[in-house]
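Notes, p. 3: input format for complexes.
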Amino acid sequence: MNDDLLLYSMSTFRDLIIPVLEVAKARRIVEVGAEYGAFTHDLCAYAQRQGGQLITIDPEPQPAALQFAATLSNAPHFRFIKATSLEALPQLDEIDAYLLDGDHNYYTVRNELELIWQRRASRPFLVFAHDVGWPCSRRDMYYAEERIPAEYRHPSSREGVVLDNPGMVPWGFRICSVARQEGGPKNGVLTAIEDFLAGHPDLQLDVVPAVFGLGVIYSKDATWYSQAAALLAPYANNPLLARLERNRLKLYLRVLEDAYHRSATPAAAATGISEQNLAALAPEQLRLRAKELGQRGAWAEASEHYRALTKTAPHALDGWLGRWECCTRQGHDTLADLVLDEALELHPEWLETLKDMAAAQTRNLSN
Ligand SMILES: C[S@@+](CC[C@H](N)C(=O)[O-])C[C@H]1O[C@@H](n2cnc3c(N)ncnc32)[C@H](O)[C@@H]1O
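Output follows (367 residues plus S-adenosylmethionine):
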């Protein structure tokens, strides 16, 4: 992913996280998930200043993080462990604070928290967990499905996700493999944290609703509790930040959707017709060409023609049904539902007809 267009690194929170680490006098800290090491640099400098140590864990770090680790191979303030969090955490003792940003799914996060709790001895609890906001709050993401026991794995896909849609779409935000369905039990990072906290009334969760959401979980009886709470208070559950986050996600998703439709254009061009020319065709020409493409099984191209038909002749029921069929034939069920929704928004009176025709076509498709 590119941090220039869409901020996503936990390092975005450095001006909040580092002061909280300072008031907690955290010396030995663990970072789970380094990727390019964007935050590793800051955390490492912090650990050095405190005379402590940063331990970074990642099974598949990017080369930049490995290079950084190599330059510090003998430094007492840094250690790199190439393993998963659930392999590495049981080996670590006397840790003051953790930054969790590895595998964003229920099983991993819940077990990370349980391990941290078990190994904390009498230390106060201090965990910064990333991705407690959309899209991973209520939807598992899997870097490597095989690492998750089957009973915890939700049916998953590499299709895209968009706001306010618990299913999947072909454009959307693509982040590894994610649960096909958002919500429900044992699904997502925030769900894992909430389930963990249900057994720990002595812990507080503050959520900063920006840049995919930062959760800070800390002991209410820590000597530094009030100082940490005061630092977090302006940001925790801040409605302005939440609105800004939603807005930036909507804008980004809009860019992805436009790019998806633009990339559909070459398919139309491959049939000898540019998108502009397509729009200029008469409905009858579009209809005939779409039918012909459908008969040849060229569903993506046929879909472009039907889409142009529904634009130039939105009252033409067969255009909408054609689009629906093309999506269904390509296995894009969520998109197919959206097409029917769009048609019904324009023509609510079509409800019964569309239901009957879609059912009939579904029967035809399965025969
Ligand atoms: C979102 S990136 C981390 C970004 C980084 N923390 C930052 O703020 O710039 C997630 C990283 O977690 C690593 N990862 C995936 N599964 C993991 C696991 N089970 N334990 C530790 N790290 C994991 C991935 O290899 C990837 O490099």
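The CA atoms of residues 90 and 118 lie 9 Å apart.
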